[in-house]
Design a protein that fits this description.
Elements lengths: L2 H21 L4 H20 L3 H22 L3 H18 L3 H21 L25
The structure holds heme C.
The site of heme C has 22 residues, from helix 2, helix 3, helix 4 and helix 5.
Amino acid sequence: MKPAIAALIGIALLTATVAKAEDTGPGLGEIMTLQQLRHIKLWFAGRAGNWPLADYEVGELSEGFEDVDKLLGGETVGKMVGGPMKELQKAVDDKNAAGFAAAFDHLTAGCNSCHHTLDHAFIAIQRPTSLPYSNQNFAPQK
Ligand code: HEC
């Protein structure tokens, strides 16, 4: 086989594999498990005044919500958590601890209103009370 043809076949196979991976990408439940983890980490990052970490977790949460948005379509995600996510980003940018706590509670309320709207009211999210990640130091780093 000529190298050019072999390369073309290679590209075709690769494209097919990527397309398949997209079809069978993580479902809503899997994405939500990650959102739950980030929700916890975000809270403790903000509480510790580790604003770069809080900023990172807000970014991860928003990427997760973008994936949810692609799966659900429509405007559900924006309606439920769009406002609180902006509020959180602003509080983190301003290093505003009180604003952060308020915005975090608004986000949590947004999580729950979506669960209500989409028939999952039994999944009730709240402010975390303890940090399960003892292998990560949340204190601000120099
Ligand atoms: C756009 C709507 C929507 C938003 C916003 C939303 N959720 Fe969900 N969530 C769902 C739906 C629907 C399910 C059920 C998914 C499934 O398993 O099919 C779910 C499931 C979950 C689960 C159960 C996962 C498991 O397997 O145990 C957790 C935990 C969760 N969400 C946390 C959150 C958190 C935390 C937020 C906010 C930071 C959030 N969700 C925001 C719609 C939403």
